[in-house]
Amino acid sequence: MNEFLELAWKHLAEQGKVDKQFCRVTDDLWRRFSPEEIKNQHPELLCAIFYRSLGWSVIPISKGEKRPLVKWKEFQDRLPSFPEIMGWFLHPRWQDPGIGLVLGPISGVFAIDVDGTEAHQVLQERSTVQPFVVRSISGSRKPHRYHLLYSHPPIETNAKFTPWHKQLEFRGNKGLVVLPPSLHQSGHRYIWDCELELLTKPLPPLPLEILKALSEKRNFTKPPVPVQQDWNEDDLSLDDLLLLPCLTQNTQYFLYGMYAYGSGWNTRLFNAACDLCGCGIPFSNAADALLEAAKPVSSTDREIALRTIESAYGEPRLPGKTYCKNRQEIDL
What we know:
By secondary structure, the protein is an alpha+beta fold. The protein folds into two domains: 2-210, no CATH class; 223-331. Helix content is 40%, strand content 15%. The chain contains twelve helices and eleven strands. The strands form three sheets. It has a six-stranded antiparallel sheet with strand order 6-7-3-5-4-9. A three-stranded antiparallel sheet has the order 1-2-8. Strands 10-11 form a two-stranded antiparallel sheet. A hairpin with a 7-residue loop joins strand 4 and strand 5 (145-151). The longest helix is centred in the first third of the chain and has 17 residues, at 2-18. The protein is globular and about 70 Å long. Residues 219-230 and 325-332 have low confidence and may be disordered.
């Protein structure tokens, strides 16, 4: 845990140098406690402030339990302030409170909760879990009990969804998971089991197989956006685009950002743009969504990507088609 506390302290110190408001908010903490006192006596407070600096909505939970110590409904829609966090984790009646992470769009975090060997095996068999995923180990220390954290997808999610196994939970909007270094009722702490630097970087997108499972549930419970050829540019959000029934699965995955850094991204971009064009999506909507999904790493790449989209929109297209280098249409 010491390594994690050092990372949290370093991150907060660096952020304070560039964020004056953050520096003012936490200045009282630095005056009241030395670095060693915070690390030794108030590690949960230090970590809660660190998580909040990442843009995560965190709340105090009972020591050794998952029960929130505050009314937390409002923190499903707004981030707690730093003074609120300091008041919670220095509360004289709450000894060593744990840290709960409120999942969903408010934090931009989606979690996979694996609770046992069977659930672990199902996840390994049905999904491609990347090695760079942010992973925490349960304080129970029982085999195959852990959380995987991903960026929250741009579709509606539920607090709990178990399509593959009852002990394999997909936790989304308004869900709650326990974060390290909270104490488990066993007496052990939750710990991070990944490269700690990953915590300060953007979380990876969900594996395709899990996104598909979530999308199928969404499409079953909510009618898809109908196809039309006269979209108003104000009508469409990324969420709407992902639900267009005329889009191919590859285009949906591209819009979700799954192909951003892989090989052949420009060809995939061209075909996704053709698909959107065929569905009658205005160029400005398509360009904004596709550029965000392509994530060009330089201004040159961005110019190339924009020219590719312009090329796709340069002539009439049909939805559900892909194109060879000679621009011939073939069915997907």
